[in-house]
Design a protein that fits this description.
Structural class: alpha/beta
Helix content: 25-40%
Radius of gyration: 18 Å
CATH class: Alpha Beta
Strand content: 15-25%
Shape: globular
């Protein structure tokens, strides 16, 4: 029997609470990629003339701090459901008290179109229903939404990538993933806690209905050998959704 969604959320939040004090050191290897990705985000923020930014799933506040330091003219806020991570953000990462609010991405405590830009970095593959968060991000954004996350179709051997894409197109991916995970739908690892098999392309329809312009930037690339790049050639993708009207 598969575990309930509430049980999965409990497992993941317990993992973050228990690893909060050394979370940043556990994920230090991600810092260079994160910095490179943020440079694209900074450019897009300037392009759309953003003045306010919300980071959804801010964790220990690295994204909030980095954006604020790079663009001090902005008002940057974050939401994070785990109190222990917010404590680390304030005590160790220099994030001002009050800049992070304890809340969940599925129910953002803000009115419609209340931030110029809304972003999330590497959180959606931890969520059973990621598009619930994506829709909330789109709801509270005025000008831009940025999603940097995994892309299962660009991971593994080429034959495996094509198989995953074929199963997805035949609407058999959910069944195959359930079998792979023993009915749970997720895997547990010491380095990443509870994680689902997610691709930013799973959120493509949601984002395109909102955005006037969509820019996809590969974040974990190998040599482009397919016209389906970055779908099949990048294990991670930064989605930049721009609303021009």
């Amino acid at each position: 029997m598969s575990r309930s969604p509430d049980r999965a959320v409990e497992i993941q939040r317990r993992y973050y609470t228990e690893t909060a004090s050394h979370y940043d050191s556990m994920h230090a290897h991600e810092g260079d990629d994160e910095y490179e990705n943020l440079k694209f985000v900074y450019a897009m923020l300037r392009l759309v003339g953003a003045r306010t930014v919300l980071d959804v799933g801010a964790g220990t506040g690295r994204g909030v701090r980095n954006i604020q330091e790079a663009m001090p003219e902005l008002i940057v806020r974050g939401i994070e459901p785990v109190a222990a991570l917010i404590e680390q953000a304030v005590q160790k990462n220099g994030v001002p008290k009050g800049a992070l609010i304890q809340a969940v991405g599925e129910a953002l405590p803000f009115p419609d179109a209340s931030f110029d830009a809304v972003c999330s970095f590497g959180i959606l593959h931890h969520i059973r229903h990621p598009n619930r968060i994506v829709r909330e991000m789109l709801r509270v954004a005025r000008k831009a939404v940025f999603i940097s996350d995994s892309n299962r179709f660009g991971q593994g051997r080429r034959s495996l990538r094509l198989l995953k894409l074929a199963l997805y197109r035949m609407k058999l991916w959910s069944l195959a993933n359930r079998l792979k995970t023993g009915g749970k739908g997720y895997l547990l690892t010491s380095g990443d806690g509870l994680a689902y098999s997610y691709s930013v392309y799973d959120s493509f329809d949601c984002v395109t209905q909102w955005a006037d312009r969509l820019i996809l930037i590969p974040t974990q690339t190998e040599k482009a050998t397919s016209w389906l790049h970055p779908l099949l050639n990048s294990g991670g993708v930064l989605v930049c959704a721009i609303k021009e009207k």
